[in-house]
Amino acid sequence: MDTNHFKEKLEAELVQIEAGLKSAGKLINAETGDWEGTAPEMDTMPPQAEPNEAADKIEEYESNRDIEENLEVRWKEIKHALEKVERGTYGKCEVSGEPIELERLEANPAARTCTTHL
Questions:
Q1: 10: three-class secondary structure by DSSP
Q2: pTM of the model
Q3: What is the Cα–Cα distance from 32 to 40, expressed in whole angstroms?
């Protein structure tokens, strides 16, 4: 198996995921890879602001938080796969130790298990 091919795919996806994370949140712990959805500037609204404006900002924050949570999960999966590349254990099922099918890795380079152990 050409692990360099999969490493390149993982690194390219990581760049995209990080861009998405930066637009929806901020990194709060680089060591653990924890991100937090960003809230829109609520304090810039005057007291007489439309109630709909406040509702829109709350909805924006909730949307950012949902996006951030999904991207953070994928970010951690990719980082884990890249660590496995460095350790020389990439492409092995974490349950059985058997090779993960190449088709599965092409579809999801961060896959942790073979199709038998989904």
A1: helix
A2: 0.80
A3: 25
Amino acid at 39: A
The answer for residues whose C-beta is within 8 angstroms of residue 7's C-beta and 6 or more apart is 82, 85, 90
How far is Cα 61 from Cα 105, in angstroms, rounded to an integer?
Answer: 34
In the chain, the DSSP E strands lie at 25-29, 34-37
**What's the rounded Cα separation, in Å, for the pair 6 and 85?**
9
Q: Are the beta carbons of 38 and 24 closer than 8 angstroms? A: yes
Read off the pLDDT of residues 63-85 as tens digits, 9 standing for 90 and up: 778 888 899 999 999 999 999 99
| Dist CA 25 CA 6 (whole Å) | 27
What distances in angstroms separate CA 44 from CA 5, 25, 63, 73, 104, one per listed residue? 48, 19, 20, 32, 48
* Three-state secondary-structure class, residue 4: helix
Provide the sign of the torsion angle of the four alpha carbons 83, 80, 108, 61, taken in this order.
Answer: negative
Q: What is the pLDDT of residues 29-58, one digit of tens each?
A: 888 888 887 766 655 555 556 777 767 777
